[in-house]
Amino acid sequence: MITRNFTRLLVVMICSLFCFSSCSRKITENGKASYYADKFEGRKTASGETYRQNGLTAAHRTLPFGTKVKVLNISNGKSVTVRINDRGPFSQGRVIDLSKKAAKRIGIITTGVAVVEIKYKKKKK
Fold first, then answer.
1. By three-state DSSP, how is residue 65 classified?
2. DSSP 44
């Protein structure tokens, strides 16, 4: 009798786990990242902020301004969290443009471009 009840409980718990995990707000996106050139220092971003290469900011085509994004460099395992404050990148195949400081943190200054995984939470509606 205990075994049957335990089995039922286990089945309910597993089903619940699958149901709630499929409703997760965490989103993962893969692609290439690059970083802003020095010439953009002091210019206005799409959000109206002034670009500062020593900030931990980034550009994304569609994410709302202010979204926090974790960027992981696939080749070396280094990661950084940035705040979206601009639109872009406008080069095909790229998913995010990082500030120079963020690019340094994940080690892409010398290569200029790297394959990354970005993670963020989808805002509640």
1. coil
2. B
Evaluated on CA atoms 112, 117, 122, 123, the torsion sign reads negative
pTM: 0.78
What torsion do the CA atoms of 77, 80, 85, 88 make, to the nearest 10 degrees? Answer: -10
* Assigned token pair, 88: 């872009």
78: CB partners within 8 A, 6+ apart:
72, 105, 106, 107
Total residue length of the chain: 125
The tokens describing 61, both together, are 């085509």
Q: What are phi and psi of 100, to 5 degrees?
A: -60, -40
The per-residue pLDDT for range 14-52, each reduced to its tens digit, is 555 454 444 558 899 999 999 998 899 999 999 999 999
Largest Cα separation within the chain, whole Å, is 73
Q: Which of 51, 42, 50 is nearest to 99 (CA)?
A: 51
